[in-house]
Amino acid sequence: DRLIMVDASGEVVDGDELLYVMAMDAHARSPLAGVVGTQMSNLGLERALGSQGIGFERAKVGDRYVLERLNALGWQLGGESSGHILCLDKTSTGDGIVSALQVLAAMVASGHSLAELKQGMRKFPQTLINVRLEEGFDAMGSSRVQAAVAAVEAELGERGRVLLRPSGTEPLVRVMVEGEEATEVARLAERLADEVSAAMAA
Known about the structure:
Layout: E1 5-6, E2 12-13, H1 15-29, E3 34-38, H2 43-50, E4 55-59, H3 63-73, E5 77-79, E6 85-87, H4 96-110, H5 114-117, E7 126-132, H6 143-156, E8 160-166, E9 172-179, H7 182-201
Parallel strand pairs: 3-4, 3-5
Antiparallel strand pairs: 1-2, 5-6, 7-9, 8-9
Helix pairs in contact: 1-4, 6-7
């Protein structure tokens, strides 16, 4: 039900980039109102689509939430970084073969390679750190954690974003920082993860 591709130079093309390629192909044929991604979708996807006048909405992680948002908005195209892509004008669920055919059709129609088609989207560096939680600790409700998130968001400004997301299957909180500069992103993610651990130990 998912699709990840590799271009001619051996570079992995993930779900966000494939979604961009498919969106641009659809937009070339008829103006595309918008695309639904998730909280984990790369900021580069949102920026690239926005530069073309294409809307972008984030749903919770999970294809069912993407589908729910697509139906609510009346949009046709959405997906996840993992390669779970929904093309509601072609099928009602994520289908790797259908997605692959859409990408190949975009390549044929444009006359460009996959590497060339993805060039319009610049992926932002992301750092994801899993912090194991002690039983009973509510990281999202901690005022210390909330203040730390606010401080990192203020430091990043419009250059990035922060996401803290509790795991649905393990006692973890996933600390994600995304921004324009990889070194800064890694530093801020480490700082935020340390704050979560410190708040838990306090």
